[in-house]
């Protein structure tokens, strides 16, 4: 019997389909020559009309170099395609956003920036995916500066948005304030960096970050630029040592490292807090172990409660950004997305449901509306084109 996973993926998970009839000579004359020339001339005179008369206004590129795919590592662009197709169909299903997977056969940052910038006129936004740190930071920054459309590295910001949403509701459930929580982030790569910065923007004051060598602290001389930047706004109590020392007395553990954390270290946390162990498929702390030491337990998996999954964020974030004709994704838009996700279940919180289900149809519309409003508030919307009758 064929493996059902391979059967589902046979032929890929997506196709291109026409939205217009092509049955008659008149259909052809409208959709292609000579009619299409009128639209081309209008866009040449006013490029903003591309948002209205092409797919640009509702389509994003999902771009990877295959260097950090899921937990599989640097498996290359061809092997990354099933994940990128999956991302594209999630965009469509949950946000009504069309997405095209682009797996690039290069891991040179300059070349990736050049290629994506050259392709950008075909899209309304760029979703960077599964690009290894620290290159992902530079690539996103450079594209964000170059392009007049939103650029969003989902492994960073999608994760961070959903973590903040989960923590907001966890704090409410525990009758705590975000500003009073002691949070430990284990993992200082793409996700860990973004989670830390977004939690700081969201109101968390005491965050200690750990990498594979232990706590980021001022006595270390081996920190790269990204980690040194993280340290500048974290570890206010001057904690040193390893994960066990960081977790001593902590209220919240957020695992985004992929490495196992011993139960003995987790046992040093303040009882009744939260553990979000997000590595996939194997969480840093198994949920049954985490439940012995925390009231709220979350993972990235669908077979345990509180799935902290990026699909709660990215479809609505791009839907809202495209609807608002945003030129970039601001910090305010990310915080608005987190608040919208949290609000969906805020009136029915339990320890097993601090975030909505990824299948909850209320999520993407709520996020899109909040993100679009934040874009307008932050002043990053392009002027609306004057559309011919």
Task: Record the SSE blueprint.
Elements: H1 4-9, H2 25-31, H3 35-45, H4 50-53, E1 59-64, H5 77-95, E2 98-103, H6 109-119, E3 125-128, H7 135-146, E4 151-153, H8 154-173, E5 182-186, H9 190-202, E6 206-211, E7 214-215, H10 225-231, H11 243-247, E8 252-255, H12 263-266, E9 273-277, H13 287-290, E10 294-299, H14 314-323, H15 331-344, H16 363-378
Parallel strand pairs: 1-2, 1-3, 3-4, 5-6, 5-8, 8-9, 9-10
Antiparallel strand pairs: 6-7
**pLDDT averaged residue by residue:** 94
Number of domains: 2
Strand content: 5-15%
Can you summarize the main beta sheet?
6 strands, mixed
- Beta strand count: 10
Distance between the termini: 57 Å
What is the CATH homologous superfamily assignment of the largest domain? NAD(P)-binding Rossmann-like Domain
CATH topology of the largest domain: Rossmann fold
Q: What is the CATH C-level name of the largest domain? A: Alpha Beta
Number of helices: 16
What string gives the helices and strands in order? HHHHEHEHEHEHEHEEHHEHEHEHHH
Could you say what the CATH architecture of the largest domain is? 3-Layer(aba) Sandwich
Low-confidence stretches: none
Placed side by side, the strands forming the largest sheet appear as 7-6-5-8-9-10
Rounded to the nearest angstrom, the radius of gyration is: 22 Å
Classify the secondary structure makeup into a structural class: alpha/beta
What is the general shape? elongated
